[in-house]
Amino acid sequence: MNQFYKNLSIWLVIALVGLVLVNLFSPKDEPVNQISYNDFLDSVNSGKVSRITIRENVAEAKDLVGNRFQTVLPDNLDQVKPFLKEGIALRVEKKKEPHWLASIIGSWLPMIVLVGLGIYFMRQQQGGGGKGLMTFGKSRARLIEGEESKLTFADVAGIEEAREELGEIVDFLRDPGIFTRVGARIPKGVLLSGEPGTGKTLLARAIAGEAQVPFFSISGSDFVEMYVGVGASRVRDLFKEAKKKAPCIVFIDEIDAVGRQRGAGSGGGNDEREQTLNQLLVEMDGFEANAGVIIIAATNRPDILDPALKRPGRFDRQIIVPLPDVRGREKILKVHAAKVQLDSDVDMSIIAKGTPGFSGAELANMVNEAALMAARFEVGKISMALMEKAKDKVMMGAERTSMILTAKDKELTAYHEAGHALVARLLPGTDPVHKVTIIPRGRALGLTMQLPTDEKHSQSRSWLQNNLCILLGGRVAEEIVFGDITTGAGNDIERATAIARKMVCEWGMSEAIGPMNFAGPDEMGRSRQPYSGETAVRIDQAVIGLVTEARETATRLLNENRPIMEAMANALLEKETISGEDIERLMAAGQ
Fold first, then answer.
1. Least CB-packed of 180, 266, 303, 392 within 10 Å?
2. Average pLDDT over residues 354-376
3. Do β-strands 189-193 and 317-320 pair in parallel, antiparallel, or remain unpaired?
4. Is 420 marked as a binding-site residue?
5. Average pLDDT score over the chain
6. pLDDT tens digits for 162-200?
């Protein structure tokens, strides 16, 4: 609110200055009619003029009606004598010089206002607030210390290996003598890498809370500005402040914003970013010692970081923060569930098994969604049914209950999803079908959800080929039943093509191509593995072959088991959602 009033007062001052300028420079006199000297004399001689004012070489008069007119006096005539007539008041005025202060204000005020506005908007762009222009190069890191550091390792679950590796950092910050007595050197920097939402930032804050040391937090994008040299200045200022607070932790989130590999481009913002990176490299392992300052950085893309940044002496230790396994997910759920009201029927082990691939952030969001539903329905506590409903919402999207589908659309969607589910059930080694629905969720008109029974860390070729068949099962079902195809399988075809291309180009799973890697261009547009045009044709043929084979398999399976597919589609039209148990009953009845 204070900022609002401050901005309001500034705009009021600007408006006031504008009014003053308009008042100074706008004409205030009435309009004057310009006539020739002869016409002016005729008007005087006719007795229509009672008063004449002469200013330098201009004569001005007003007639009896009140109209004003003026003329330019000729240089070769006496300027006053023709107007010395009886009954006419003649007034001769000297040129009025403006006051020196008014002249200065009139000349310089517009420039002063423009410069002032420029400075103000520049400060606003830089997030200046009450800061001056000289703070552009100051660090924007937020300092957390003392009672603010309340997070500890007890608040971090599901990433025990990463937490144990960082325990040495905490021990060093608490008692450096344990390590220095035996000549050990604590890592200068730790790079945390992992998928979004796995808890990298949370882990860094927990280290500061455990060690009870000052914690500087900044994002990589806070260093880089449009002005060359500002980023490097901020890096210097950050380490200068950190040395004053040593021992301390400097945490740089999303370091890939400033630490990308150098040489990817030239000119413009790249020069500024590379200067910032160079200064960061110098500060981390330069001639000046940064004793007691430990750098922790987080990134989702360690592969694009500059090699000089990742070498020992800068980031001595690189720690992978993975997605949690089933035990880790259960621990994370229990940490977040401790903050909400749970019913006695909630079993976190079941929820953990049903959320493969969930990150810590997604699990926290799921618990929060269940709490919001409990508050909306006014039930007081979160039941198992609400947890399942929240899980479906996070995994598949919210139900679009307001979307009205025609009977034809519902029937087409039911057969489409039945095709996915039946192919998944018939092929060996696939993940069990958990739920099938024709209720629109997110962008999809229907969904088939599979949940793995075990944690998978790698996929076999047969498993990937079966998934190609499952993805194409919906399109094949439409073609078999209706003799036509729709755009509903667009996303399925896109995913199937991507899997097939990776099988050929990255994982060496094509007999025609062999165990070769033909990965596409990287993030910087550079080819990772150049190959000839003939090889490109062979790659395309191998990808088409995998997709075509999967389509033929799905067609054979659905034609052989069409009665079961019909039964599944009818069950979906009746109930809108069927479970894995319902599918097993339909399979048993149809065999």
1. 266
2. 89
3. parallel
4. yes
5. 79
6. 888 888 888 887 777 787 788 877 778 889 998 888 888
241 among known catalytic residues: no
Q: What is the pLDDT of residues 53-76, one digit of tens each?
A: 776 677 777 776 667 777 777 765
CA-to-CA distance for 186 and 184, rounded, in angstroms?
A: 7
How far is the C-alpha of 163 from the C-alpha of 185, rounded, in Å?
19
Percentage with pLDDT > 70 across the chain: 76
Of 545, 559, 554, whose CA–CA distance to 511 is shortest?
Answer: 545
Is 416:446 a contact under the CB 8 Å cutoff?
A: yes
In terms of DSSP H, where are the helices of 285-343? 307-310, 326-337
The residues of the chain that CATH labels 3.30.720.210 are: 31-93
Fold of 326-396: Helicase, Ruva Protein; domain 3 (1.10.8)
pLDDT greater than 60 at residue 87: no
Residues of the chain with CATH 1.10.8.60: 326-396
Give this prediction's pTM.
0.68
- Measured CA to CA, the distance from residue 327 to residue 333 in angstroms comes to 10
Q: Is residue 71 a known part of a binding site?
A: no
Quickly count: other Cβ atoms within 10 Å of residue 504's Cβ. 25
The CATH 1.20.58.760 domain(s) of the chain lie at 407-590
* 194 annotated among ligand-binding-site residues: yes
Q: Is pLDDT at 427 greater than 90 in this prediction?
A: yes
Cβ atoms 474, 419 nearer than 8 A: yes
Pick the CATH number of 407-590 from 3.90.550.10, 1.20.58.760, 1.10.260.40, 3.20.20.210: 1.20.58.760
Catalytic residue among 272, 283, 362, 417: 417
Q: How far apart are CA 134 and CA 226, in angstroms?
A: 16
Q: Across-strand partners of 218?
A: 252
Q: Which residue has the tokens 């099938």?
A: 436
CATH no. of 31-93: 3.30.720.210
Q: Using an 8 Å Cβ cutoff, are 403 and 439 in contact?
A: no
Q: Which contacts of 573-581 are long-range, i.e. CB under 8 A and separated by 24 or more positions?
A: 573/410, 573/411, 573/414, 573/438, 576/437, 576/438, 576/439, 577/435, 577/436, 577/437, 577/438, 577/439, 578/435, 578/436, 578/437, 579/434, 579/435, 580/432, 580/433, 580/434, 580/435
- Band the pLDDT of 218: cuts 50, 70, 90: confident
For residues 254 and 248, give the distance between their C-alpha atoms in angstroms, rounded to a whole number. 20
455 is in an annotated binding site: no
> Is 171 annotated as a binding-site member?
no
Cβ–Cβ < 8 Å for 397, 391: no
Give the C-alpha separation, 155 to 146, whole Å. Answer: 18
> What is the Cα Rg of the chain in Å?
39
For the ranges 158-162, 310-314, 460-464, the lowest mean pLDDT is seen at 158-162
Architecture of domain 142-320: 3-Layer(aba) Sandwich (3.40)
Q: Does the annotation flag 196 for ligand binding?
A: yes
> Which residue's structure tokens are 């799921």?
366
What is the separation, in whole angstroms, between the first and last Cα of the chain? 71
